[in-house]
Amino acid sequence: MTTERREPATTADERTMLEGWLEYHRQTLAWKCQGLTDEQLRTRSAEPSTLSLMGLVRHMAEVERGWFRRVLADETDEQAGPIYCGDADPDGDFHLTAADTWAEASATWQAEIEAARRHAARFGLDDLSAGRHRRTGEQFNLRWIYTHMIEEYARHNGHADLLRERIDGATGD
């Protein structure tokens, strides 16, 4: 399977542009993971860091869920609680074991992306989120959430570039 990435049109309207760049960065992370074994996807960047490609995908599943389901759509903990993280292990998304698989991590991430798309479709860019941030109590409009998600993926795709190069020497934007 080849991951296709397309930059949004240079003349797209704002929403199409924001959604296009978010999709581009989602596809970039998938591309960085493509063709690797579970063992390679669990490879850490460098001790003592727990950063790995599979961990990044699990992290982004948590981030997608947090912003689109918990903040934007105001889903409860029962509907959209943490997937890998919790009070006992706040960074559980990055703490992998030999039992963790790409099939599970990828399927969970893709399910969260689909949920994010469904929820975002119900909001205009300037509409305030139905819920509030659990720690700050702030509301956010969809424009802010899209912009933040693009930033979050772009930053972690930089990490993914370095991880992939360490694993098999593959580089590319």
Number of domains: 1
Discrete helix count: 6
Q: Helix/strand-derived class?
A: mainly alpha
Low-confidence stretches: none
What is the number of strand segments? 0
Q: Give the helices and strands as they follow along the chain.
A: HHHHHH
Main sheet overview: none
What is the percentage of strand-forming residues?
Answer: under 5%
Name the overall outline: globular
Q: Determine Rg (CA atoms, Å).
A: 16 Å
The CATH class:
Mainly Alpha
Mean of all residue-level pLDDT scores: 94
Helix content: 40-55%
State the end-to-end CA separation. 18 Å
The CATH topology assignment is: Four Helix Bundle (Hemerythrin (Met), subunit A)
CATH superfamily: dinb family like domain
Instruction: Tell me the CATH architecture.
Output: Up-down Bundle
Summarize the structure in short.
The protein has 173 residues and is an all-alpha fold.
Please specify the SSE layout and strand pairing:
Elements: H1 14-33, H2 38-41, H3 53-72, H4 77-80, H5 102-121, H6 142-168
Structure report:
By secondary structure, the protein is mainly alpha-helical. The chain has a single domain (14-168), classed as Up-down Bundle (Four Helix Bundle (Hemerythrin (Met), subunit A)), CATH 1.20.120. 55% of the residues lie in helices and 0% in strands. It is built from 6 helices and no strands. α1 (14-33) runs parallel beside α6 (142-168), α3 (53-72) runs parallel beside α5 (102-121) and α3 runs antiparallel to α6 (142-168). The longest helix is centred in the C-terminal third of the chain and has 27 residues, at 142-168. The model has no long low-confidence stretch (mean pLDDT 94).
